[in-house]
């Protein structure tokens, strides 16, 4: 038997049982953190023409933070009782994750029957990001699905349709708004028509139907811009919890923004034409990872939006073909707990820092991979990559020699 037959035979039963455990056992059991409760309450209040944004934001309980357009889309949840509504939401979330695994495989050129699909699903449901999305009953599964549908449609040049899934996500949870930079850079302007138009139209519909839509702007948005010191793995949130000096927090934020700017510039200049898939997926990971770190709120289960970046390990030229990147992945995606009875303070430090250092290490690994590649290209006189992916020498860099040498890893080709 070939590995392509052995891997599915081994992984499918393990994966299905892991999915069952995460969804039916852990998910239905729930946890003290319940992201679904405030969403259901807001949906019920919206349907009954009551204020939605009047809760006390000074508590550490989960709060309702969706805009009026998101409230409109979430309103059907309150048609049935809260327990069955939550179970239904978990079930649909699992379907969204399965669909996401399929789209991720298709994005990289693998069929639904490929050995890659059970591997992707096993990785999905083995991570903290997916497990806690189901346990806390959060919207993240649909964010991932919308993100991947956007990428697949964008790659296939269905521009207006590509804006639909990302537009629906933005109407509820604008966390992936930075991805709108990608169609701008790729000159696929029509994507923005539906990506921006859908949340605008839904907001226009929801605004007069809401009792207190202005409260979202006056109360909720200022709260969203604060770096709270609990359940927050961003640089600002982590720093606030551990009492890090403000100047150091600002310096770290600036450093990661600078690294992201260089990474995005390099990817755009050298890979957008030669390997659009590598450009799109790596750039999305840089945008999302940097947003988690430098934004006001970064929570561990956001890490599922980095799955397309991690999938590039199958591509030549990938920025995650190195062990520091995967040590970072372990930090931000592990379901392991580091609380220790014997070394309480040490375990607590590890537990509270693992997601922040995981994101940080992954972004640093991507940056360093691209930086070293750029330095190699400068040394070898490679100024650009042509449409076939071959290096094109710059006479100014080679004193007229123009040998057309390539930097290590400068050419990205798909390996299947």
UniProtKB/TrEMBL annotation:
Residues 386-416 are annotated as: Disordered. One of its GO terms (molecular function) is hexosyltransferase activity. It is found in: Cell membrane. Its EC number is 2.4.2.47. It is a multi-pass membrane protein. Keywords: Cell membrane, Glycosyltransferase, Membrane, Transferase, Transmembrane, Transmembrane helix. InterPro entries: GT87. The chain crosses the membrane at residues 87-104, 110-127, 134-154, 160-182, 189-209, 247-268, 301-320, 357-375. GO terms for cellular component: plasma membrane. It comes from the Bacteria. It is an enzyme of class 2 (transferase). The keyword Endoplasmic reticulum does not apply. Belongs to the glycosyltransferase 87 family. This is Alpha-(1->3)-arabinofuranosyltransferase. The lineage of its organism: Bacteria, Bacillati, Actinomycetota, Actinomycetes, Mycobacteriales. The gene is aftC.
């Amino acid at each position: 038997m070939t590995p392509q037959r052995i891997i599915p035979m081994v992984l499918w039963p393990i994966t299905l049982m892991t999915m069952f455990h995460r969804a039916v056992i852990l998910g239905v059991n729930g946890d003290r953190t319940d992201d679904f409760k405030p969403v259901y309450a807001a949906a019920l209040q919206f349907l009954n023409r009551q204020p939605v944004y009047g809760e006390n934001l000074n508590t550490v309980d989960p709060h309702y933070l969706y805009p009026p357009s998101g409230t409109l889309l979430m309103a059907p949840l309150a048609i049935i009782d809260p327990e069955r509504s939550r179970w239904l939401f978990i079930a649909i979330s699992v379907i969204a994750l399965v669909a996401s695994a399929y789209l991720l495989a298709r994005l990289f050129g693998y069929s639904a029957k490929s050995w890659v699909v059970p591997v992707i699903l096993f990785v999905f449901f083995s991570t903290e990001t997916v497990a806690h999305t189901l346990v806390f009953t959060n919207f993240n599964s649909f964010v991932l699905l919308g993100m991947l549908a956007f990428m697949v449609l964008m790659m296939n040049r269905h521009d207006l349709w590509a804006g639909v899934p990302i537009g629906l996500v933005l109407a509820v949870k604008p966390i992936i708004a930075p991805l709108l930079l990608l169609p701008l850079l790729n000159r696929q302007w029509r994507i923005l028509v539906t990506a921006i138009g859908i949340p605008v139209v839904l907001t226009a519909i929801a605004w007069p139907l809401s009792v207190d839509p202005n409260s979202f702007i006056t109360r909720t948005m200022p709260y969203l811009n604060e770096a709270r010191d609990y359940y927050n793995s961003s640089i600002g949130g982590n720093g606030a919890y551990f009492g890090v000096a403000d100047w150091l927090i600002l310096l770290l934020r600036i450093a990661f923004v600078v690294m992201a700017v260089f990474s995005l510039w390099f990817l755009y200049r050298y890979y957008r034409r030669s390997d659009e898939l590598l450009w799109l997926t790596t750039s999305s990971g840089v945008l999302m990872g940097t947003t988690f770190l430098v934004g006001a709120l970064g929570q561990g289960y956001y890490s599922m939006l980095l799955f397309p970046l991690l999938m590039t390990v199958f591509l030549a030229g990938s920025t995650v073909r190195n062990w520091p990147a995967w040590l970072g992945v372990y930090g931000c995606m592990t379901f392991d707990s580091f609380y220790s009875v014997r070394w309480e303070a040490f375990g607590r430090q590890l537990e509270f820092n693992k997601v922040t250092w995981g994101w940080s290490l992954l972004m640093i690994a991507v940056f360093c991979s691209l930086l070293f590649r750029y330095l190699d290209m400068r040394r070898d006189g490679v100024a650009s990559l042509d449409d076939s992916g071959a290096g094109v020498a710059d006479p100014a860099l080679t004193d007229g020699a123009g040998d057309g040498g390539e930097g290590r890893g400068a050419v990205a080709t798909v390996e299947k």
